[in-house]
Please model this.
Amino acid sequence: MAADDGTPDGPRAGEDPPEPVGPVAAVRPFLVTAGRVAPDAEGRPMPVETQVVATAEGLAALDRLSFERHDIVAACRRPQSIAEIAARLRLHLNVVRVLAEDLRTAGQLTVHLPDTAAVHDSSVLRRVIEGLRAVPDSRGALRDSG
Model:
């Protein structure tokens, strides 16, 4: 069969099919969150840099939590940002936001919102960039400073 643009679907004769990027989630994000979207109690989405950490109650409840909730609490034994959790668990960012809010409400996560003044301070961004440049690459060489 051909795609709408006239190109054939799938690999061409003699070509191997492309490697999958990773496992595809079997459940759609809106099913995981019961159709809810990301805003918190005040109607704002949790910033991606928000740090979350599991509470003692959350760790004690791990075996009673369902799938994604279990994985989020387990990943938060150490503080993690919302973005890190989404990347590590391969979950949609807004799914993590909604579930983190649910887990916070249940007392299973502690949420530390970023200081908005610091987030918008350009000197913080400059220090982050300088710090990243100071990290050697896989060969042990420092990255360009320019």
The first helix runs from residue 29 to 32.
